[in-house]
Write a structure and sequence with these properties.
By secondary structure, the chain is of the alpha/beta class. The chain contains 10 helices and 16 strands. It is globular and about 60 Å long. The structure holds NADP nicotinamide-adenine-dinucleotide phosphate. It comes from Actinomadura soli.
């Protein structure tokens, strides 16, 4: 089968012809129709997460996807051949992933029936980013009347954060370069601040404090490194919460400032997917697909995502 894989960490991802996997007990084989690209995919290829991930090579890249159940392994009862499913398909320890014509999933793993009326390319864009957004809003205990800053709001996770924080009744401030300010407001942001204005007098904190002199209640951040989180945390009122998706927050340091710091990790479940399906069905969550590319262009799409400037999700048609 055709798949995008790397021969070793640090190698350039390439289209390869690799064996089609066989579903074992409790597993399903899925004919992939679309896969969603996440920063994790190039981080994995680059070896940036090698200490926390077991992998064999050649290693097929990609986690998120949607497709049709082709074959079920022994003992599978929850899913049937022909059903349309979406979710995550990581199998790095066996060299498997979602950027391939066929992928494996566990029937008790993070896969679910696709939401009614949803097309494959949309469904593939949902799992990792939207689940992270849901987890971050839960972790921050975002509530009506709070003021929340979303840092990295224009990308895959950030767009979900803006919508979910707004849905929870918070006043949302979203980071956005000028071209994305309108989109952020349409997704529910009350205000935008331009993170590309770098100098202190006009930087992120100054722009927020110009409107919110007494500070804000929470920061939901998907991009900042550790020193930047300490800087941005100065915006928080006593008792405020800082949540990071990139493990940049130091909870002890936040506690010493009278704040709460939380790092959110992956770990999608089928229950989370069902929650996301409900939010999508109710039109409370929209996932913007910025770009669709054929499988052979996935290496270029990963390079483009690594370079920055995401304006939504990139989806790979398989
Ligand atoms: N822990 C978890 O479970 C989990 C789950 C999902 C994702 N993540 C991580 O979360 C991060 C974000 O993922 P994603 O899918 O949202 O990425 P993405 O789609 O590539 O989006 C990143 C966005 O951040 C913006 N940005 C970059 N630097 C910024 C800055 N200094 N201030 C404000 N905005 C900035 C980018 O726009 P510009 O370049 O134009 O500024 C882009 O729109 C990744 O590192 C990913 O690995 C973690």
């Amino acid at each position: 089968m055709r798949a995008i894989a790397v021969s070793e960490y640090g190698a350039t991802p390439a289209l390869m012809n690799l064996p089609r996997p066989e579903p074992g007990p409790g597993e399903i084989l899925v004919k992939m129709i679309a896969a969603g690209l996440n920063p994790f995919d190039w981080k994995l290829a680059d070896g940036m997460v090698k200490d926390s991930v077991d992998a064999t090579f050649p290693l097929i890249l990609g986690v998120d996807g949607a497709g049709v159940v082709e074959q079920v392994g022994e003992g599978v009862t929850r899913l049937r051949v022909g059903e349309q499913i979406y979710g995550t398909f990581a199998g790095t320890e066996r060299g498997l992933g979602a950027f391939a014509e066929y992928a494996l999933a566990r029937e008790d793993g993070p896969v679910a029936l696709m939401p009614e009326g949803m097309i494959y390319t949309q469904a593939a864009a949902v799992p990792t980013a939207s689940a992270a957004a849901l987890k971050m809003v839960d972790a921050a205990r975002v509530d009506a009347g709070q003021t929340v800053l979303v840092v990295g709001a224009t990308g895959g996770v950030g767009q979900g954060l803006v919508q979910l924080a707004s849905l929870a009744g918070a006043k949302v401030i979203a980071t956005a370069r000028a071209d994305m300010a309108g989109t952020m407001r349409r997704l529910g942001a009350d205000e935008t601040v331009d993170h590309s204005r770098g100098d202190d007098a006009d930087g992120l904190n100054a722009q927020v404090l110009a409107v919110h002199k007494d500070g804000i209640d929470a920061v939901l951040d998907v991009v900042s490194d550790a020193p930047a989180t300490e800087d941005i945390a100065q915006l928080l009122r006593p008792g405020g919460t800082y949540v990071s998706s990139v493990w940049a927050v130091n909870p002890d340091s936040m506690e010493a400032k009278g704040l709460r710091g939380v790092n959110v990790s992956g770990g999608l479940t089928s229950g989370t997917l069902d929650r996301l399906s409900d939010l999508i069905d109710a039109s409370d969550l929209r996932v913007q697909v910025e770009r669709e590319v054929p499988l052979e262009d996935a290496p270029d799409a990963m390079a483009a995502n690594r370079a920055g400037g995401a304006r939504g999700k990139t989806v790979i048609r398989i």
